[in-house]
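Slide 14.
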Amino acid sequence: MIPFKIQERDGFLTMDDFPENCIFNKVKTGCGATTIALTNNENYIIAVPTKELVVNKCYPPKDKDGNDNIWKKSQIQPGVSPVNENLFGLYGNLNRTVKAKLKKFLTKDGKKKILCTYDKVSTLIPLINPLEFKILVDEYHNLLKQYGFRTKVINQVIEKFELFKSHCFLTATPIPEQFKPEIFAGITEYVADWKTVDKITIYPCLCQSASTTAAKIIKHYQDNGYFVLDGVKSEEAYFFVNSVREIKTILTKSKLTNDDCRIICADDELNHYKLEGFEISSSTAPAKRFTFVTCKAFEGVDFYSETAICFIVSSSNNKHTLISIDMDIPQIAGRIRTKSNPFRNKIVHIFNPKAINYYRPFDVMKEEIEDELATARKRVEQLNKEPDTKILEQQDKEFEKLGIDTYIIKRNDRYEVNDMVAQLKLYQHWTMRIVYKSAESLIESYKELGMVIGKAHEWDIKDEDVMKKALTPPQFRDRLKRFCDLKEKATLTDSEKQELKDITDKYPFLEQGCEKLGINQLKRTRTIKEIKALIE
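Slide 15: predicted structure.
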C-alpha cells in the first residue's frame, strides 16, 4: 500500500477527485468519499453493491440543513434524484420507461453522475460512451465477499472496468492481502493518510442463544425506556442481522409490532413470506425505536440517531449471520452519521460460538486449494491448445453446470484460472471455522485488527454488570419508575402506550395509586406492599 496525502476537514475528505486506475483505501467509513464523485467536475459511473445504497443517496433521509426528508414510497424509483438534477439512480428492471429517462438525462448539459448497482455496469456500456466516464466501484471488497451468489455480475464488472476513462476501486475495508485475487494484486493500492483515525470499541456479549439475548435487550429497552452503555442512556437500537429468518425469530420472541420497528431487507416475495405480516421498510423511511438491518444496508447507507446503539447478532447455527470481523464490523460502525451520538464507533456484538471438536487448520485448507489451482492451470493450458471445438463446447457446458465450484473461466474465447473462487473459499473458511470457532478466537481477531475491547467494568452501573441487568427481568421498582415517566409525558407513541398497558396489566393497582397519591408521592414509594397500604 502507498500512503496517499489527502485533503480533509473535520473528518471528511475534501479532495477534488480520486487517484486514477487504482484501489483507494479511504480507511474511514462515513468520510464523504462517495460525495466527491457525486459532486465534482467529472462524469462518473458510481457502481455500488445494493439498491438500498442507490436509494439512500438519491433520496437522502436528511436535507443539507439536517432536517428530515419524508419520502413517499411511490416517489422512490429509478431516475433523476429529486435533490440533485445531475444524479441518476439506476437499479432494478431497465425497462422502456427507465431507458427513456436515462436517454433524456444523458442529453442534458453539465456533468453527469450515474449511481447504479453492480449489475448495471455492463448494461450501461452500450448506452453511453465509456471513455467519457470515470468509474468508481464503491465498496469493492464485495467483489470477493459476494462472489459466491453474484458470480456473473461480478465477472462482468471485472471484465468491463478497463473500458472506462479511468477506474478506482474504493473501500474503507480492503480485501486482506492473503485473500486478494490476482485481478486486484496487480493494481496500485493507495491508503488515505489521515492525521487521526477513530478506533472501534467492541463489547462482546457471549450467550447461549443470540436471538433470545437480542429479544431480552429489546425487552430491557421497553421496560425501562432505555439501555445504558458506559453510563450513557440509549433510547434507540439498530440490530444488524444478516438473516431475515433470524430477524423474524427475534421479532416473535420480543413480541414487537410494525409500530415498534422497521426492517430493512430485500423487498421480495420470499422475505415477505418469512416475515409473515411484518412490513419491509427502507433507510429513507422514518426511524423507529428498533431497526433491523440485513447486509442490504451494512455499507454506505446513512442512518441518523442521537442515541442509537448498534448491535450485531451472530448465531453459530446460521452461517449467514457470521459476519466478517475485518470488513463488516468497521462498515457497521460507520452507519450512524449523527456526530453527537455518544455511541458512534461502538458496537455490541451478541454471539454464541459453536463448539467445534475438529476443524481443518487454515494452512491445510490453503495447501489443498493451492494444489487444486495448480491442477486448474494445467487444464487451462491444455484447453487453450485444444483444436476440437466439440470437446471445448462440451467442456463449456460442464463448467456452466459447476458454476462457482470451478476454478476455470472463459474470457474472450480463452480459458483462464479464476482464483476468485479459491480466495473466497479460503476467506469463508477463515471467518466461519477459524474466527468463530470460540469466544477467545473471536476476541483475539478484534485485537489483531486494532479494535478496543470493552472491559467488564465499562459496563458497570452501581457495581452491576449492565448486560446481566439487561438479561434479568426488571424488578418492580424499575416498572414503577417507567410507569411514572410515561404518566408524566404529554403524549405517548403507540409503542409507549403498549408499554404502559403491559405495566398496568401486571400491576393494576398503580393506576389507583396514581389517582390517590399523585405521581410525586408514588415515585417516593419503594414496594408493592407500601403502595397498597397507602391506597387502602
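Speaker note: The longest helix spans residues 362-385.
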